[in-house]
Design goal:
The chain is an alpha+beta fold. It folds into 2 domains: about 5-160, 2,3-Dihydroxybiphenyl 1,2-Dioxygenase, domain 1; about 170-285, 2,3-Dihydroxybiphenyl 1,2-Dioxygenase, domain 1, CATH 3.10.180.10. Helix content is about 20%, strand content about 35%. It is built from 7 helices and 17 strands. Strands 1, 2, 3, 4, 5, 6, 7, 8 and 9 form a 9-stranded mixed sheet that branches. An 8-stranded mixed sheet has the order 11-12-13-10-14-17-16-15. The longest helix is centred in the middle third of the chain and has 10 residues, at about 95-105. The chain is globular and about 50 Å long. The two termini are about 30 Å apart. InterPro entries: Glyas_Bleomycin-R_OHBP_Dase, Glyoxalase-like_dom.
Length: about 290
Amino acid sequence: MSARGFDHVVWAVRDLGAAPRFMERLGFRVTPRARHPWGTENHLVQLDGFFIEILGIGDETLIPEAAGDTFSFGAFNRDFLKTREGASMLVMESRDPAADRRDFERAGLHVYAPFSFGREATLPDGGIRKVGFDLTFVRNDSDPAHGFFTCLNRYPDTFWSAEYQTHPNGVTALESVVIVCDEPAEQHIFYAAFTGRREMRATSLGITLETPRGRLHLMPPAAFASLYGIDAPEIGPGGSAIAALGLRARDRTHLAQTLREASFDAVEAPEGLVLPAGDHFGLALVFD
């Protein structure tokens, strides 16, 4: 089993006009809106090998329902947004979808039918290029509220853009994904299979797993509040929430100045400068 780094996170929002404007105020470069044939629409924030997919519902009448072993990306995010906004899905990179499937099945995980799609992407100069992806959806029985899949990017040279990856705020890469959960140890089996990393570091603050691109932190609410200086998201018994993304900046002083000039009140915390999730579409952003 080979290790997988984080590929992207799906950030589901109800207002697909306001969320990209929020990210632009933070100093990010945001791609033009793209549309999926199954009714969802998105904007992307590209970093170094990782991207944030800001996703909304465009045309609900186009959304197919899940049936049998077929996972419905559109229906899952539509239903997620009925109760909250925030990070709805975690995605790991793929080099071989068939190998991903074998790994997940050997680990005893439920794997859905293979899914592939392509679309057109708008480049910074206005040009149009084809992009395509092969997705392997898998279920986390310990966290059914979120979606999980691996993604093989079939045309990386046309997908990634140095211009879109250059942000005025100086943010360059993903540092970490933070998940708040009642019992981090109960997530061990799933995340070992999902990331291909069996070695995890356990402390009184939770579990940390190093991937080839970004760290995964699993922690209880009290640990999150201590490390990030803000209230943890509310979770029910046995529940989980993708609470925060940690992002690396070239110059923290410049980043802090960008936030002040945009009238954002960031919280100074042990893990970095934190923008709480409350008024920011359900996902905290942490800058280091």
